[in-house]
Amino acid sequence: MALSLEIVTPVGQKLRQPAADVTAPGVLGELGILPGHIPILTALDIGRLTFKLPGTGQQVLVVNGGFMEVEHDKVVVITETAELASDIDADRARHALDRAERELAKLESGTAAFEQTLRAKKRAEVRLSVATQG
Ligand code: ATP
To answer: What is the CATH number of the domain that holds 117?
Structure first.
């Protein structure tokens, strides 16, 4: 028995495949999904979504907010951007992190621009971490 995992972004379907389990960055904490899970709809944070293919090792995907719906062993994730470790350009993430840190130093905390830049910083940190450590 496996889950069916589908990841969708505004530019199309990123992947659709069976998975033995899925762990997702819920806004209230990490969520582990196994076959037979109760139906849920939850908001996602920026973070690592991990899944295991039946009979293979664990894979990691960086997701950028959005939602996850679980129903009848079908897991659907709708997120702004999604990258597998092998998609990530570590230098680009390093530059994005430097840029976000420089911008944050000039912005007033609590403003919309500050919050937006904090999210850019978090995206870059997670991408860099997944690109370099998996
Ligand atoms: P940057 O400032 O480097 O563009 P960003 O966080 O603003 O980073 P996003 O708006 O989240 O980028 O993503 C835009 C597109 O670029 C998406 O398709 C995303 O998957 C891709 N992307 C962003 N950063 C990287 C990266 N370091 N390596 C590979 N693809 C990336």
So the answer is: 1.20.5
